[in-house]
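RETRY 2/3 - previous attempt timed out on the joint model. Re-submitting the same 675-residue input unchanged.
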Amino acid sequence: MSINRGRVRWQCRRALLELDLVFTRFLERDFDRLTDDQVADLEELLRCDDYDIWAMVNGSKACEVDRWKEMIGLLRQR
Amino acid sequence: MNVAKRTFDAVIVGAGGAGLRAALQLSEAGLKTAVLTKVFPTRSHTVAAQGGVAASLGNSTEDNWHWHMYDTVKGSDWLGDQDAIEFMCKKANEVVIELEHYGMPFDRTDNGKIYQRPFGGHSMNYGQAPVMRSCAAADRTGHAMLHALYQRNVRANTQFFVEWMALDLIRDADGDVLGVTAMEMETGEVSIFHAKATVFATGGAGRIYYSSTNAFINTGDGVGMAARAGIPLEDMEFWQFHPTGVAGAGVLITEGVRGEGGILRNASGERFMERYAPNLKDLASRDVVSRAMTTEINEGRGCGPDKDHVLLDITHLSPDTIMKRLPGIREIAIQFAGVDPIKAPIPVVPTCHYQMGGIPTNYKGQVVVPKDGNPNSPVAGFYAAGECACASVHGANRLGTNSLLDLLVFGKSAGETVVEDFQSGQLKLKPLPADAADVSLARLARLDGQTKGESVFDVGLEMRRTMQKHAGVFRFDALLKEGVQKIGEVAERAKRTEISDQSKVWNVARMEALELDNLIEVARATMVSAEARKESRGAHVRDDAPDTPENPNGRDDANWLKHTLWYSEGNRLDYKPVNLKPLSDDVEPIALAKRTY
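RETRY 2/3 succeeded.
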């Protein structure tokens, strides 16, 4: 099943301002260049709790799912 | 155009704490209930609430609801309605214990009771000493609460419409509310949700400000929809600000940083708080610090190329201390200010945090408007709860941890009232007017057909800058007057927004344009209400209404002890009395006094 990129873009709207800011930067800079496989990884990551995503982005928690690491790396980039 | 119609006993807009608590009441009573939400329920902004929820359980220190009521009325600077405040404080224990039974993982005392911690403004014996009243689940209280409520709703078979955006309120010729129109984001199709009861629980609109701690979803959708449908907005001049949000980003830097020794400095490096609060300096109360920062910026001593912020300096602390005690803050500074606070100070500005005003309701959660001489006449079929509503328990300034309590108590109360009205046969499914969806369809057609229009981003940015400059934490008559004119101009531009992508499916640009329509109503209401209120009270502080013996703290009870009501049509103001009489004889009215801590 193909993933609608608009849907994933909308799901980057989060409950925490910290993540909204991180995702805004990511959407402007990286999102359009992602392959379909990468968007699928991102969509899976977006199902996580906001505090867990923020902890992975700010490095206080290790990302334990290998296929998310690339996305976390992009989200961390300033 | 043919618009699909769905029929329910009740439709709830918003799935944060208030919406989920209301939905639970309805679903468990067997009402066919739909909850519309533009994001997945557990991604609502309730998640961000860290402090706790107030309840006078008395588990850790002696406490009772009378003391809680006193603190709330005083916090509100006497603008809160004492009937609603009594109701909330009395109900607090019940709703917190209920939540415990739903599986909320509260922190515990050694003997297994809910642990309670002290919080600013909470006192025992009417202001005499700190009390332990805040029930918390570590620093994730809102998050834990939302998850507990969501699970319970799943159990109760609440029907969720996730990633649906409500567009407009449907009212008939009598003014009764019959439901909402809403757009499914996946298809772009508009449907009518026809219901006997409509409950708004859409949260706040903190995104009207340039510097805001609120997540991007906080666009005041319910408040904007209500205003467009002719419902007045109450006390919209009152917004709670936090002194230290990261400049340009809004992310909160907690008070704990100043507690650890952080110092605020202006462009010349001066520790300016020594001039404003010689004793407490940087640890003075939030409003004192925020006003001092604003004065420094307004008088040209701000930092950066635009002189638009001050600096929070912790470079004198050892790197070890920063790494050990403030690791999260260091990460926020690096991520959002681009500075490592070990080496350089953090740019900060006073930042919008919470909306005290909103859709006027009574303590039962019914939306009320002036009609036939009654300032609080219920609108049939319409209810609201949480930050989008104004009960009014927060008045001119909210007491910490009363926001989570508000959404539990009034979410439940609105739900109970709907169930009562439903079971008594008072709620009827009135016939839909033929033009029920016309307003929404016209808005969408206008947006799709707009050419040579305005960019949503540009208009939104201009709105946020205008609000920050003209109706910020410290207010000036000339700036407010100019602000009224400017926000009117921005609102005119917002009528001509254009989107380049007109696809139906998952069109984020369209969503953002529709959200701006809601925000702009809130921004106009705030500016006009603030310009008109010529006193200082709670969070509304004017430089031309200073502290004098006749008007302590600049508060003018003789002329301004009243609620503002702003009407979108005609940009018109009205006022209604504050209810200084409690709900029952269990408590005497809390008499007017100067608000000092």
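Chain A touches chain B through 25 residues (CB under 8 Å). Closing ticket.
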